[in-house]
Design brief:
Blueprint: H1 9-16, E1 29-34, H2 51-64, E2 67-72, E3 84-89, E4 97-102, H3 111-116, E5 142-146, H4 153-169, E6 174-177, E7 189-192, E8 196-198, H5 203-214, E9 223-226, H6 231-244, E10 252-259, E11 264-270, E12 277-286, E13 303-312
Parallel strand pairs: 1-2, 5-6
Antiparallel strand pairs: 1-3, 2-6, 3-4, 5-7, 7-8, 8-9, 10-11, 11-12, 12-13
Length: 313
């Protein structure tokens, strides 16, 4: 996977044994814009779109705290019809709240603004949760594979083989996407609107992990975290999954989070056959200074969240 003399942040992170637990960026809304040309290093921000349209979409996404990602099918071929856009939201119920549309002209992307301004994508104005979603997957979650090589080399080197493997298995569900965070954990896969981040994947493990996810089983291995939770809470849920085995995305919930001088006391409640409630103690620590990305030569430290105890509530 490496080239002699060249630095790859994902290789270095694996050699160090970097923990990826609790590293999923917080957020519950996503904007996907299919863009079939080359992706700028800074993604949507770098696109040469009509300025007024771009400003409207950017402002609406900021107001909704939505992440904007450029997407494309693997291989950049076999395009049918105009490119698509989507707004997806996680609401905690498991419903796949999605609004899809198409665009030929830049100005048509203003449809995204209306979708972002509608909190409930199940509202009558939008019909069902998957209105305008391709019929072949009927509102199932979307699988995003970060393959943004201009942002970080590891996203391309590790992401594209994963994109190929997943696309061959679930061609209707899988899109390659721009930067999702955590370059050193490439290949990264995000399932939306479930809001689940997976990392350190390769072609084989990605098919297994996504297959389990689609079957309603999230495993602790390769899990970075749930995006509706904050890092210590993500670490607590991951620890419960690691201790008691895989579970559905909504089988565990964080019921209480208490901060103390040593860290956090987090109560996680569950559904059968998992435990009804457990208390997880999480502590944070900083790593030594390391080079964490391929593009940046500067070093920095990262925060690691460790679950130091798990006990019945």
């Amino acid at each position: 996977m490496t080239t002699t003399g060249r630095f790859f942040c994902a290789d270095a992170a694996r050699a160090r044994g970097d923990s990826m637990v609790g590293t999923a960026p917080h957020g519950t809304a996503w904007v996907l814009i299919e863009y079939r040309g080359g992706w700028p290093a800074n993604g949507f921000d770098g696109l040469a779109l009509e300025p007024g349209t771009k400003a409207l979409v950017f402002a609406a996404a900021q107001a909704a705290r939505a992440r904007v990602l450029l997407v494309r099918r693997h291989g950049r071929q076999h395009h049918q019809g105009p490119p698509r856009w989507a707004v997806l939201r996680y609401d905690g119920t498991g419903a796949h709240r999605q609004r899809w549309g198409t665009w030929d002209r830049d100005e048509e992307l203003t449809q995204i603004v209306q979708a972002l301004d509608t909190p409930d994508l199940n509202a009558p104005a939008f019909g069902t949760a998957s209105l305008d979603a391709p019929e072949e997957w009927g509102g199932r979650p979307v699988v995003l594979v970060c393959a943004h090589g201009l942002h970080d080399a590891c996203c391309a080197v590790r992401g594209r083989p994963v994109g190929r493997a997943l696309s061959e298995r679930w061609p209707e569900l899988v899109w390659e996407c721009t930067h999702v965070g955590g370059d050193r954990f490439a290949a990264n896969v995000v399932v939306v609107p479930d809001g689940v981040y997976y990392g350190n994947l390769d072609a084989g493990s990605s098919v297994a992990v996504v297959g389990e996810h689609l079957a309603g089983r999230v495993r602790a291995e390769h899990l970075r975290g749930y995006t509706d939770l904050f890092p210590p809470q993500q670490a607590a849920v991951a620890a419960v999954l690691d201790r008691f085995g895989p579970a559905g995305r909504h089988d565990y919930a964080v019921a209480r989070t208490l901060r103390d001088e040593d860290g956090w006391q987090i109560r996680v409640t569950g559904r059968p056959p998992g435990p009804a409630a457990v208390d997880v103690e999480v502590r944070a620590r900083r790593t030594p200074q390391n080079r964490l990305t391929c593009r940046g030569p500067a070093t920095s430290s990262a925060v690691v969240y460790d679950a130091v105890s798990i006990r019945p509530a």
